[in-house]
Amino acid sequence: MVTVFECSLHGHISNKLKAKLLDRLIGICGTHPFPFFEHEIGFIPTTQTAEGPQRNEDVLLRIKSPIEENDLTKRQWTLCQLGHPETRGRTVTVRPVLYSKITVGDALKFMTVLGYSYAFEYTKKGIIFTYRDILKIIRHDVSKLTPFDPKENWIVEVTTIPVQQDQVDNYCSELKLFDDSLKGILNLFHVEHLVLQNKIHYS
């Protein structure tokens, strides 16, 4: 199986700038957004590596599914493995990814069979723009039992389609050009602490 990579930038925008950002994105992308509602569950190895630096090498897995507003119980799970971000001086977050649809059976039981235990879960709800069929711009609120951000600010994620390693530099350049087009409204940044995000529920 060929390893593919996702390149991404993230930002945070206040409620008062939402309308300006939407107008800018509609102009840049040439299209209106479509709704986005997703459920994600994280899992850790049932048998963990002993505490210490080596624990960081444990593989964490997630399953995610779109949520249908007219049937909140329906799920179509995809298994996700998100690797550690590259650390070699990039200004864009780049990390290996693996996605595989779970087409039959009980996804939660499947994770148990793989030797994994429940760690966390949350939902993301918002809108998605696409840009030149290579970038996905997601505006979302993250929530658990209570809103992630009670002030209703937006988290913005700009992610490339999964690409092979020899395409990473070109797609990083596209991402930075897109970042430049949002200057004055939204500052995007690469998130080195995504590694910590993968482990915060597990350390």
UniProtKB/TrEMBL annotation:
GO terms for cellular component: core mediator complex; mediator complex. Belongs to the Mediator complex subunit 18 family. The keyword Lyase does not apply. Pfam families: Med18. It comes from the Eukaryota. Keywords: Activator, Nucleus, Transcription, Transcription regulation. This is Mediator of RNA polymerase II transcription subunit 18. Its main location: nucleus. Component of the Mediator complex. It is found in: Nucleus. It comes from Rhizophagus irregularis (strain DAOM 181602 / DAOM 197198 / MUCL 43194) (Arbuscular mycorrhizal fungus). One of its GO terms (biological process) is regulation of transcription by RNA polymerase II. One of its GO terms (molecular function) is transcription coregulator activity. InterPro entries: Mediator_Med18. Component of the Mediator complex, a coactivator involved in the regulated transcription of nearly all RNA polymerase II-dependent genes. Mediator functions as a bridge to convey information from gene-specific regulatory proteins to the basal RNA polymerase II transcription machinery. Mediator is recruited to promoters by direct interactions with regulatory proteins and serves as a scaffold for the assembly of a functional preinitiation complex with RNA polymerase II and the general transcription factors. The gene is MED18.
